[in-house]
Write a structure and sequence with these properties.
single chain; mainly alpha; 73% helix; globular
């Protein structure tokens, strides 16, 4: 790794960075507007593909979770990067994620396993509360528990979701580290976690705001949804590009392998 690049990334981790909340939202919208037709058309295709594949029992879930969704999600980031750099884009660029399908699938798998393990204490607490059994009884014999009040888990139970939320937010950039820096799955996850953790709470709020933007698209329906989904991906990309100095590194010819220190 180039020494200047090593120092730059080490500085991001050790000293932190400024999180330009409003700038990332503004830049995301700017990227979207520069290729609105392409983003909207790809989002429509994305949703159709996911829905059709989900109709296949079991296989559909596996295909969507570990292959289709990661690959197509990477396509949003790939095109956003080209648009931000002022490069000409083609519709086929949205499918460049297939070039990294193996590492993207592994990234999705590892993330699911980690988040799943983190979720176990919460599931056990809810199970002990009797809520799951209550719903099972309703499913088996609705009349048997008619009029009864479902058990309510203790309020502290929801604190057990903290690790799940932490990892879910911290891994937000993993796919981008795979496609832009060519990191293997585990290293991409750790790179994402190490940098986002420096400003985790801000990124958590950022994620909530982006969720509200996506929800607004659902309320507007159709066109609003088709625009809000890519807008959110473009905003995530804008934060990643600025904080990791993605294109500055490329322009300076410093390479894009930042694996070593990000996974320590």
């Amino acid at each position: 790794m180039n020494g200047d690049q090593q120092a730059k990334i080490d500085r991001i981790i050790s000293e932190g960075y400024e999180f330009k909340f409003g700038d990332y939202i503004s830049r995301g919208f700017d990227i979207l507007k520069k290729n609105l037709g392409g983003f909207v058309l790809f989002t429509l295709l994305f949703l159709v593909i996911i829905m059709v594949i989900s109709l296949i029992p079991l296989v559909g879930f596996v295909a969507n979770t570990f292959f289709i969704t990661p690959v197509l999600t990477a396509g949003f980031f790939w095109v956003a990067n080209k648009v931000w750099k002022g490069e000409t884009t083609e519709f086929g660029d949205f499918f460049r994620g297939f070039d990294f399908i193996r590492q993207l699938a592994l990234t999705a798998l590892i993330q699911l396993v980690i988040v799943g393990i983190a979720l176990i204490p919460f599931i056990m607490a809810v199970w002990d509360s009797g809520l799951v059994q209550w719903y099972m009884e309703i499913f088996n014999d609705p009349l048997a528990v008619q009029g009864s009040i479902p058990p309510i888990p203790a309020s502290w139970t929801f604190l057990l979701l903290a690790p799940v939320i932490y990892f879910s937010v911290s891994y937000s950039w993993a796919y981008m580290f795979v496609i832009f820096h060519k990191l293997p799955a585990w290293d991409a996850l750790e790179a994402s976690r190490n940098i986002i953790t420096k400003q985790w709470f801000m990124y958590f709020i950022f994620t909530i705001v982006l969720g509200l933007i996506a929800s607004a698209g659902v309320i507007i329906v159709c066109i609003g949804l088709l625009a809000s989904i890519p807008a959110v991906y473009c905003m995530h990309y804008a934060a990643f590009e600025d904080i990791t100095q993605l294109n500055t590194e490329s322009e300076e010819g410093e390479g894009d392998n930042i694996e070593q220190h990000l996974v320590d």
